[in-house]
Amino acid sequence: MKLMVTGGCGFIGSAVVRYLLSESDHSVVNLDKLTYAGNTESIPQSLLNERYSFEQVDICNPAELDRVFQQHQPDAVMHLAAESHVDRSIDGPGDFIQTNIVGTYTLLEAARKYWVGLEADKKSAFRFHHISTDEVYGDLPHPDEVEGILPLFTETTSYSPSSPYSASKASSDHLVRAWLRTYGLPTIVTNCSNNYGPYHFPEKLIPHVILNALAGKALPVYGDGSQIRDWLYVEDHARALVKVVTEGKVGETYNIGGHNEKRNIEVVQTICHLLEELVPNKPAGVNAYQDLITYVKDRPGHDVRYAIDASKIASDLNWKPEETFETGMRKTVQWYLDNESWWQRVLSGDYKLHRIGDQS
Known about the structure:
Elements: E1 2-6, H1 11-23, E2 27-31, E3 52-55, H2 62-72, E4 76-79, H3 86-91, H4 94-116, H5 120-125, E5 127-133, H6 164-183, E6 187-192, E7 194-196, H7 205-214, E8 219-222, E9 228-233, H8 234-247, E10 253-256, E11 261-263, H9 264-278, E12 293-296, H10 311-317, H11 325-338, H12 340-347
Parallel strand pairs: 1-2, 1-4, 2-3, 4-5, 5-6, 6-10, 7-9, 8-12
Antiparallel strand pairs: 9-11
Helix pairs in contact: 1-8, 2-4, 4-6, 7-9, 9-11
């Protein structure tokens, strides 16, 4: 297959591209605008690879999208291009409305125009796979507040987004499903839990904490750090996404989770413990990495708990995560220790990182 991956230079998109180039025979057309979080260096496998093509294109540009579809003739689209930082969406929601809603609409229309013109066999095989987030569901009760079995997000959970980011992703999900029902465009939607792993942009919680700790800087935690997230290792997610686009059923939604519910403070403490082991020589003035933890004012509308029920993708497509939180976190911390040149180049860019690190 030839797969068009939008946002293929971002965190999750680059993991998908790396997986496709390393673990499959599929060809990849990587379509990315290369905004602040896009980085071509996140795909070392792309160098001189005949199965890889790159197009620097904005998904809000219909003429360029038409050109790319006609030039490359993809068999499927994996749509990951999105603005995804909750704090940024609170500070400036306009970019999220433009990219996540208008961009998805523009891409859907370009894909539909292309799909309608395909020959019958290619038309029936074509797929539009939209990659979304569990944040569209809002949040779940905290275990400190309820008794009994705690609920999980399922594919039928009602949408109740809390932030401009999650509202924009919810809107894009609805557009994708509408294009299936109204026009017959063969779409599939996946909603994932919080990802972590190699090549993660440093404004996000886990890399932000790792790099701040190595520099002897404060490790800011929103509120009391009791917010709970389900953590999914990004390479497990990439495997799941490729499985969905190649084996998933048109019209279905698949929730993808890591089975790793952790409080934000637990995540930060885990990083501190790993660094005590892996980097015992601390920055000047630091006795213990955990001493750097600093509690700061919570952000507006902060969701309490996310948790994914991933039983459908396990039963229907035989996927489950390979990494536990412990093994995935160790791999992640070690990757940042081994790849300082990558994150130093990112940190030296002309954009400004948010102070706290997204704890969505």
